[in-house]
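lol forgot to send this yesterday, sorry. struct tokens for the thing we talked abt
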């Protein structure tokens, strides 16, 4: 699969200011001096600096167009650590997966995860929270997403996936129904995820209340999707006047749909929602601002699962051998739970934990398509030791960026034919999970990082994995699924589309880290 667009061949040669070439010459030098003056002279031990040819902007345009190709080109030129100028910000890029742990386990007093998040919260979702304390918020979320309440969330998700997927009239008639695969996957997971976290019409559910759940969650999804499609432009500040009007009307509608007053009447609200609302109340956040924060959270919690499930299903539909292997594995799952498929009202974690083929397929499709920018704000001047013994100086106020999509995920030294989908790549011959991957002759700890790593690894990882598995299970056991144009190439992977939580990921979604 070609995962990202080919670069056009018309780049201007960028400027490199390393210790040897810092003098430069002629016209190329003027732009660099301009930027260098803003920053002050280079200091000993800093990574190679590449300012690009446009004053202040540096490489921002190329980065915004196709971050993966740009970073691959820079890696070729400078190796696995370098600093680039992106729209007035100096961003040090580290692409050595053996050294990622040094960054992801660094305390936030040195490398901060949250600072830029607050700016994005305001820029994209118009959320301003007084006395906002990210650590406090995270501690509260952790309990409700990971430990105590994970089983309850997983059970509720299964029920809601069934409501959304199996209750639609088209499904009941048994007719073929033509739909876009992305909208189908995104819609089903977001609607069920919304009902799971934000509550349902009634408990116990009746056919009428479930029909209402379907109508209401479809309204939330379609409204949300209009905003979602404009988010890249919104984050970059490049909305047209017409787009701006559209964004404000869609956002206004979502704020109404998710207002605390409307949510108050909902049944089976998750402990995540109860805890988050309490947290907002304790901070003295007004009901209007609470609604905005709830819209932000809808995107943050639901923005990735649908696209991840889309890629997984697409790879399965394109690879009959993989599809047969997954089907074979899932056929045995109900027997493990001693329930016939059609009557399974829950999908126990024990059964969900015992699907190595599906796990491998999920890891492989995330390896090929999950492209988070893992960014941290450099809070103090500091030394960054790399795994190979080298040490580099980082400057306070700069930004640090890891891009695991390039390495380890697409690194040919780690994965043979890294562009190719191999459903059993993460399986050993005996069927157990394969975990040993090597680079430079050394075993890698971080060989695939769709969920981040270290202190800020995804808190929703288990919930997301269980939800995606349940979705795949329901789709494969209750639907006949065919691609309308089976010969069509797999679409290019669009790195400018939202991937992950904007407030936690410093705009990784938007091809911008500044
Ligand atoms: C396929 C789905 C998902 C993917 C690929 C994904 C990916 C990520 C990544 C890469 C990070 C780390 C960011 C960094 O270190 O810079 C992250 C953080 C986070 N994710 Fe997810 N995520 C997914 C689904 C979810 C869901 C469903 C939830 C919640 C219901 C969630 C909640 C979080 C939270 C709270 C954090 C921040 C952790 C912290 O503050 O340290 N994620 N996610």
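and heres what i got for the seq, position by position
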């Amino acid at each position: 699969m070609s995962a990202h667009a080919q670069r056009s061949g018309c780049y201007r040669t960028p400027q490199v200011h390393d210790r040897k070439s810092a003098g430069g010459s002629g016209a190329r030098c003027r732009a660099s001096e301009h930027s260098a003056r803003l920053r002050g002279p280079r200091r000993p031990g800093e990574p190679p600096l590449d300012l690009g040819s446009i004053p202040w902007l540096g490489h921002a345009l190329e980065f915004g167009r196709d971050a993966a190709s740009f970073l691959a080109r820079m890696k070729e030129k400078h190796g696995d650590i370098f600093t680039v100028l992106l729209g007035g910000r100096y961003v040090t890029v580290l692409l050595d997966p053996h050294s990622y742990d040094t960054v992801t386990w660094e305390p936030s007093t040195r490398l901060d995860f949250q600072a830029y998040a607050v700016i994005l919260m305001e820029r994209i979702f118009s959320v301003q929270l007084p006395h906002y304390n990210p650590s406090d918020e995270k501690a509260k979320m952790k309990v409700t997403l990971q430990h105590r309440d994970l089983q309850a969330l997983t059970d509720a998700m299964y029920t809601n996936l069934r409501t959304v997927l199996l209750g639609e009239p088209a499904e009941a008639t048994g007719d073929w129904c033509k739909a876009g695969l992305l909208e189908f996957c995104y819609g089903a997971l977001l609607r069920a995820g919304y009902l799971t976290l934000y509550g349902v019409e009634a408990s116990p559910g009746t056919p009428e209340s479930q029909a209402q759940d379907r109508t209401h969650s479809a309204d939330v999804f379609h409204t949300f999707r209009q905003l979602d499609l404009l988010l890249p432009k919104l984050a970059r500040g490049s909305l047209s006047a017409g787009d701006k009007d559209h964004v404000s009307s869609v956002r206004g509608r979502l704020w109404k749909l998710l207002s605390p007053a409307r949510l108050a009447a909902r049944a089976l609200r998750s402990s995540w929602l109860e805890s988050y609302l309490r947290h907002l109340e304790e901070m003295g956040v007004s009901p209007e601002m609470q609604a905005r924060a709830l819209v932000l959270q809808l995107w943050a919690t639901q923005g990735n699962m649908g696209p991840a499930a889309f890629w997984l299903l697409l790879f399965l539909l394109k690879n009959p051998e993989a599809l047969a292997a997954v089907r074979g594995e899932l056929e045995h799952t109900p027997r493990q739970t001693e329930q016939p498929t059609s009557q399974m009202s829950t999908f126990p974690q024990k059964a969900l934990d015992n699907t190595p083929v599906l796990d491998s397929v999920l890891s492989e499709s995330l390896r090929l398509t999950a492209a988070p920018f893992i960014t941290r704000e450099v809070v103090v001047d500091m030394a960054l030791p790399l795994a190979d013994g080298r040490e580099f100086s980082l400057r306070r106020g700069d930004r640090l960026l890891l891009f695991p999509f390039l390495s380890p995920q697409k690194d040919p030294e780690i994965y043979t034919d890294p562009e190719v989908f191999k459903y059993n790549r993460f399986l050993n011959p005996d069927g157990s999970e394969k975990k040993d991957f090597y680079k430079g002759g050394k075993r890698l700890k971080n060989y695939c990082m769709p969920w981040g790593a270290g202190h800020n690894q995804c808190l929703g990882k288990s919930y997301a994995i269980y939800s995606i598995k349940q979705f795949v299970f329901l789709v494969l056991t209750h639907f006949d699924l065919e691609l309308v144009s089976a010969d069509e190439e797999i679409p290019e992977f669009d790195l400018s589309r939202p991937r992950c939580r904007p407030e936690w990921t410093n705009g990784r979604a938007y091809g911008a880290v500044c």
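The CA atoms of residues 158 and 346 lie 6 Å apart. anyway ping me if u want another try
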